[in-house]
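Case study 2.
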Amino acid sequence: MHDSRALGRAMALPFGASLGKLPGSVWVLLLLTLAFGASGHGFLSVANLLNVGTQSTILLLIALPMTLIIMTEGLDLSMGAVLTLCGVALAMVMVATGSLMLALAAAFGVGLLFGVLNGALVAGLGIPPFVATLGTLGVAQGLALVVTDGQSVVGIGDAIPLLYSGELLGIPVPLWIAVAFYGLFHWLLYRTRFGAYVFALGGNREALKFAGVRIHRWLVAVYALGGVMAGIAALLLTARMNAGHPTAAMGLEFDAIAAVAVGGTTFDRGNGWLPGTVLGVLAVGVLRNGLNLVGVQSSVQVAAIGLLVLVVLLIESFKGKA
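Prediction:
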């Protein structure tokens, strides 16, 4: 697999050789863009490309922490359900109090609670991440349905929706938010002790134990970060939908895992590439947008995303053999 310097190395090689060094996600993204651009449905218009970027911001906000979780040889199947519950909490508190600060505190608090719970189950009790987060997925999904009685929470006012529809220097605000959080995660992963421990948790956990590092605390911190990011993503999702929907983000964790896999992060030995996650998110966003433009139903889109992951993995496999 490639690392964060793959594109840089490719640029230093002769043109023909550098093409072979490009990550599979780059090829797939390029081919998808060309294919949908030739479809004649206005895919390459500036307005639609901005729409793709804006719609992809919510996915990016949960794909970034999902990258770190997978790098620790973990998994978080609950992230979509937790995001939904955070959005419901945000909307309900906003309707009840009219205070944006209290609503944000509720969303972040719910996300942090489930993140810490996931980390405690995985690190403290040694439950496999798949099983632990599958359980918390059910809890979060059930709570979202129970507290709303299965109905959307409306009447949240204008402040939150304006966040999603607003612009700064002609660029949608969600894109600025996504860029800011990517910068934060890039710094965390590649410039801090936290990031070094993330690599080591997946690549050489025994060495951390011998060095006296309390790996359980750091593993809980990784999952807790994922929970907080679910709360932040819930803000954008609620703003986009102008309501808190109890099923709004169900299944979004699948897109996040797919984006991380497409981006080149592997499920073993701490191999991760954060810029690749951005490419994976864009590939998923382009695929969904293009399929919507040509009128493909949502159930087929799920299968298309699964096929996208397989295609990228096949490309990387052929490159590795070559």
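Strands lie at 167-168, 171-172.
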